[in-house]
Amino acid sequence: MAQRTVPILKKLFSDTPPHLRSCLRSITYMPRPGRGGSIPVNPITGEGIPRPVTLIPGDGIGPLVTDAVEQVFEAMRAPVTFEKFEVHGDMNTIPDDVMASIKKNRVCLKGGLITPVGGGVNSLNLLLRKELDLYVSLVSCFNLPGLPSRHENVDIVVIRENTEGEYSGLEHEVVPGVVESLKVITKFCSERIAQYAFEYAHLNNRKTVTAVHKANIMKLADGLFLESCREIAKRYPNIKYNEIIVDNCCMQLVSKPEQFDVMVTPNLYGNLVANTAAGIAGGTGVMPGGNVGTEYAIFEQGASAGNVGKPKIVEKKRANPVALFLSSAMMLRHLQLPDYADRLENAVKRVIFEGKYRTKDLGGSSTTQEVADAVISALE
To answer: Is 300 helix (H, G, I), strand (E, B) or coil?
Structure first.
């Protein structure tokens, strides 16, 4: 069985883009929403010049919430122009003109894309991350004033390795009824995600980085991830570093989430941890996030980004746009437009705090348009 894995591993590394094999490029750090003072490396916009951004409305609730973002950007006269493309999750691949737009603009805002279950159909979300080497997934999970949640004082940033692990897509049927799925962990990818996590903590005045793992069982794979985190941690003596096994991590999250600050994880664990933390702090509908690499960035709903919503929500036009509003604020900071980001965040927080306009998942009955109108009215 082991011999069968060799051609697959060769294919993995032969398909690796050249810039993934070199760690000489600088990293673009995503400031956390609501946290000022950190400036991304490599400015990507000029003062007073409208910045083109690729927009993919996506499936389900995607067109509703991205349209709400467009309205808010127009209302606050943000110097951003959108290049909009129709992309759907049941497509075989990302159209060439869409990929060309993202590579030209370097920044994309995206609604959810449906991910077919089974059937051998590729996830376009994964294709985008791999093609653009978006090796960091960052999700911010925090309490919003006025929004009831299961726990208070939650302020967690989940930084997830985004390109390998169980998501490598290396599966094959050995014999009928026996499928082998490979989990690939490399020192290069583990070190660069750890470096990102510690540098993010440093830039944003965070105190602790926690590595999530299952090295007690997957001693080689997760063991390599931990070794890489430990090596990077030595370069940041002012940041506390600790480790936690993923099953204990989930238990601790639902019982005492305030103990966590920045969490760095392999691919699969990060997906589970981010959604758990989001559920604790107010729900996936209010959690922003983005995917970033050395050259490109895609911003989308942070937790359950592939969740396109139930058909009734789409029919009644009651999708929650808050998560994408806050993800858009992250995008504005990435574009070095912090004043606009602050205006958008403050408006969203004011609407949430007042509580008059909320969608069903937040305990209200408002439509997407009503929430968007409220945010526009709250803009300073």
So the answer is: strand
Nearest to 293 by CA among 9, 20, 84, 90: 20
Q: What whole-number distance in Å separates Cα of residue 273 and Cα of residue 189?
A: 19
Q: Among 35-49, 171-185, 283-297, 346-360, whose mean pLDDT is lowest?
A: 35-49
Segment among 42-46, 209-213, 366-370 with least mean pLDDT: 42-46
pLDDT one-digit tens code per residue, 236-249: 999 999 999 999 99
From residue 64, give the alpha-carbon distance in Å to each of 60, 93, 379: 8, 23, 20
Q: Long-range contacts made by residues 117-126, C-beta under 8 angstroms, separation at least 24? A: 121/90, 121/92, 122/92, 122/93, 122/169, 123/89, 123/306, 124/87, 124/89, 124/91, 124/93, 124/94, 125/89, 125/305, 125/306, 126/167, 126/169
Q: Which helix (H) or strand (E) holds 13?
A: helix 2-14
Confidence of residue 48 (pLDDT cuts 50, 70, 90): low
Contact of 207 with 240, CB cutoff 8 Å: yes
